[in-house]
What does this fold into?
Amino acid sequence: MSRRTPQLPSWLPIDPYILALIGTVVLAALLPASGAAAEVAGDASTGAVAFLFFLYGARLSTAEALEGLRHWRLHLTVLACTFVAFPLLGLASWGLVPYVLTPQLQSGFLFLCLVPSTIQSSIAFTSIARGNVPAAICAGSFSSIAGIFITPLLAAALLGNSGGGFSGDALLRIGVQLLLPFVAGQLLRRWIAGFIARHKKILGYVDRGSILLVVYTAFSEGMVAGIWHQVTPARLGALLGAEAVLLALMLALSWYGAKRLGFGREDRIAIQFAGSKKSLASGLPMASVLFGAQASLAVLPLMLFHQMQLMVCAVIAKRRARDPQEAGTGGAGARHGDLTGTVVAG
It folds into this structure.
């Protein structure tokens, strides 16, 4: 008899990119950049983040975004989940200090509540669950655009000095490093959109490589500063527990709240998956700009939450796909049902 290769359960998606992120953290722990090497890595990270947001701007179709505005109630609901409900729960987490979370971990926990929603994974899970895929595409895109403006402002207002000293200078860096490249990408999209579409796969590697560089730089700074001695196994377990509660609350709020607002089932699916998740791809570069040397602890809650949301939402999406109420529908999401459950760091 032939022996089958052991495989992970289909409901347990371990994103390969998460493994790459873990490997980068291990590399930073063993071989952190210091001295002149740290300066080179920091400059490279700054350039990579700017280029990353330039690509975000160049990829966004303004016409598609304007078309999606017709479903404005759904998009406002997702934005309310992302930038109102999440931050309020993040503020409530101050009650966990110092018994459950340290002040530094709580700042990272609050920061994850401020970043925008995902795009890729929201689309993938909405498709699997036979929801409104076009709405998920627009909602994720709107959240990402809004996050470039809203996340730094919320961080400055809610985190204050606990976030590494937010100031006018920090907001200026956000403008120069994130907003200007994004706007430049939008302005140049007319001439470079074709090139980007033809080289989508290669540029995808550039995206991910840029984020890995940001992670390496941030965690190297944390190792050199010795801040990782503050994270004990008990604190890490407490952080995971707090994030599990946060995810459960947002999944329930986005699903039942959308029902109370009168949305149909397909729209509720899109709202739940777009309104309950947070973007690793957007959050990591923002944290590197906002937190400086404290970025390594700030991004740890976001990295853990990202993998948790993938695992939990994969289970929910596949259960919704088996719902008999959805099996016979021919809505917007049904024609996208052949997408796989593989998701990326959105």
